[in-house]
Amino acid sequence: MAIVSVPENDLTISDPEQIQKYLSTIGIDYEQWPIVELGQGSNDQTILDTYVERIDKVKKAGGYTSVDVINVHSATPGLDEMLNKFNREHWHDEDEVRFVVEGAGLFHIHPTGKPVVAVEVSAGDMIRVPRGTYHWFNLCGSREIKTIRFFQNKSGWSPHYTESTTERDYLPVCFGPAYINPRA
Hints:
The protein is 18% helix and 33% strand.
């Protein structure tokens, strides 16, 4: 379940419908997909086969030509170097579309002329950050995430850094639903 936080506005949202509504105001698509228990050791093809109907729908709607599964965990060789490519504010020539199968991560999204929005994603969350949108990404404390990635053209997914250093003003900290006040 995603959590959206806008520190500048002292706003935190954990209701999926409200998250979808809020993120749409800044051009970000979000939806929750049912979580399917895949079992230990499920391979990439099993994951893709499990979600094939939803994958095909997203591919058709967005013009995505390919998908893959990325599985990152604390023992992934070169993990810090890989993460350093994406934990600085950047943008891409194509959409960044992710469906989280397992684990958790934190997108910071910086819409032009608006405050930075932190979107903590976990299993069942599907997010689309449109091409040209400034953002950065961090793993949560477990340093694990398994996602289905959608591509129009993998070469368009290279990061273009803004060199703004905006990311330095935001902590890469995930809290999860246990930290959200249900009355907030």
